[in-house]
Amino acid sequence: MVRAINPLLIALLLAEPCVAKELSEADFLGELPVVLTASRLAQPTQDAPNAISVIDRAMIEASGFMNLADLFRLVPGFYVGQMNGFNFSVANAISSEYARHMQVLVDGRSIYLPSLGGVRWDNLPLAIADIDRIEVVRGPDTASYGANALTGVINIITLHPAEVEGRMFSASVGANKRQDYLFRWAGGERHKHRVSVAWHQDRGFAALNDSSHGPALNYYGDYDLGSGQALSAQIGYLGGVRDAGASFSVLSREHDERINSQFQQLDYRKTLGDGRELLLKVYHNYLLGQETVPVSHSAVVPGTTYARDLESARWHGEAQLNLALGETARLSLGGYGRRDMVHSEHYFNRDDDLVTWSRGLFTHAEWRLHPHWLLNAGAMWESHDLGGDALSPRIALSWQPDPRHSLRIAVSRARRNPVQAEANADWTFELPLSGGGTTTITRLTTNSAVQPESNLSREIGYVGTWPEYGLGFDFRLYRDRLSNLIDVQSGTRYMSNVADSTHHGMDGQLRWRIAPHSFVVLNYAQLHIDSSHASPQYFPKQVSGVLLSHRFSPGVDVSAGHYRSDAFRSYDNNTPPNYRRTDVRIAKEFKLEGNQARLAYVLQHADGADYEYDSQPEKRVSRQGYIQFQMEF
Amino acid sequence: MRRRFTMLRVLLILLTWLAFTPVWADGVVHLLASEAGGAYREAADAFRAAFAARRPVKFWTLAELDNRQIRALTSENNLIVPIGLKAARAVAEQHGGQAAVLTLMIPHVSAERLVWPANLPRRKVSHVHIDQPVSRTLSLVEAVFPRASRIGLVVSAENAEAVKGFQQEAARRHLSLNLEWVARPEQVAPALRGVLPEADVLLLLPDSVAFHAGNAQNVLLTTYRYRVPVVGFSRGLAKAGAVAVVYSSPAQIGRQGARMASRWKPESGDLPAAQHADNFSIAFNSHVARSLGVILPDLGEARRKLGAVDE
Hints:
The complex is a heterodimer. Chain A is mainly β.
């Protein structure tokens, strides 16, 4: 359909004083900055050395998820457990409350905690509305992302200010007294900026003391320095209060946890021509959780409290050079240095900072040996104060008989270094007794002999794309040999290398864009674990999901997601039962006083109540409805 | 001895005549480049190499001539070939009313805005435009994206003429054109957000409001976010992030100008009608295409199909 030109509109447009210059040959011949550089482009999944799933904005919106952690239900082979109103466990291959076997990055900034490992998903200064896409590597990838990418990598990419010019307001209200508000504005020419201010509050699970509230602030500035150079600066802050403890817990009665989470990040990018690109990155993460925990026991002096503060900080600097070696080869090389600091008198029984230094050198080459053969080879050498020195290599060979099919065989070695809680925990505290004297409570002691975990992974993968039908399919079969897995050995109070495991698994995803605004995503994963760990099936045997979205009429979108996982006994001995969950979302886009607006209704657990993470009755979540409103102006 | 002296005298007179004959004498082709090097020199060199008529061809840069000299050049039965907008504008403003003018590398919309002396017959003015014919651009879209049926376009009123052409040609090819007009820079982002969800391909046209070097980053990042491939109009745009581009190089335009100029006669001064360069090139950005999941056709095959040349 061709829209007719309204002559009146043309007249109006022509009447507009044109401040811009007249078009000339320079507009055709002038050099433009290379905008979609290698570092900005999502890696084509068929050329990647490992299986990659992408959660894009369409999926994020269609899912109706409001918690960041929930989004990973959209990835094959990922299990998401919700321990309470704000605490989530996101894992693949090894599930526990402190799931810590994956590397997690936001715009290339590692948010993996040096204190306990893993990520506190509720403490990230990051709004879902600011996420452009999430690229998830299903499988180990220490060769590219460094230690801790033992079983996977989550790479969250936020929206560049240029992509969201203008102002946006959104509000979500609903079950559990949840309220989310976000105001974002973005714009600028040479200095492009995006600023988001958010507020979140909710009551958490009905039967738990787990409400939370707090503000968040994000700034993303991008400065065009000319001559192919750009500098971007990001700052984030999240504060607020989480309710913690329980009335029945004698050593941790109800109290508040105060959060101070922030980061600063600088990225410098210079396009050097001929496909070369220099990237420099410096960032700082900081997280402080402060708790004054009341104790209530007849034997303990009434009114006793103890401080359970945990502070961690990371300084990181890295440089990377991307090179195009002719038409057939590309090379990346670089290095990084990192300083991690952890401080907690409660968990480490010392008042000084625990500091860990690490450094690494990496290189990765992609070489098209032949129009049908692609070789990916790379390695990361790292030196870590707690984990020692190690080389983590990877090689992958892809056969691509035509652009639609790619069959890959890959071998890699990955590792995870111990975090401070695993190597240096001295979780001991004293409480004054009513009858005089003190009692010492010991939860965990130090074991400096703990060794890094490692993973020797072999996989066969297939990626098929049929863009003419909007169809994409990927699948992998793998065998991971995990060694030196760290946990508390039964009968001891310290972390040690307790188990070796072999994982045989498969996972895959089918994506079908049926029409421009209608799609289906199907995920399925199966994992068989052969382990010497005390809970040998520490991950669901089967995890699956489906997300459908369809536009019924202009601006009316209906989507439904169904997510399943088998019962299992987690690495830390929790027992999540079979999980079946269905979410539904109905959204209507419309114009409100000339502005683009959208109203949506989300019903989570539409098919009835489900147990979240374990089978305690207070973690049974029933139907939850939310109304979301968004307006761009 | 006497005969030799006479010969020498004749030669001397001839040389003196030649030395004092003004360079803007009748029947001369004067190339007048907006600037000295780069694309302007490339177009001029190609023009000279391809010029088939037996006429003197002189090359000037705009900086070498003042207004009086331009007026003198254009007051004779010469052919003036301004290369670039600045040179064309100077020639139009100082035109002496006699010379024919063939501009090279000027966008169609800017050529239309040049004001020529009232007494200069319109058949004495012609152009080889730098922009591409609508049909060529849409043929590229069809060749690279055979399943694309919805073409997105965001332009300001200065491209109204081009849009008319796109509407007619799109209708003929059963393509739908999803069009948004913008009048101010701040309207571009909302316009893109309106167009991109309903487009299989976004066509970019040079436009002093909708798309230019100043907002290229914003526009290309937004298209990438919506996973909509871009078809563009310059080699630089392919490097910046467009999946496919169609363009004519300065040399191709110079050669086309030479072919037109070879048919010019000082006696009548008439020139063939304004044209786009017959020769053109296409280029792909395979990295962006792969990242967007676009399977590109073989470049050589696409060139053959469209009649493009390898530049």
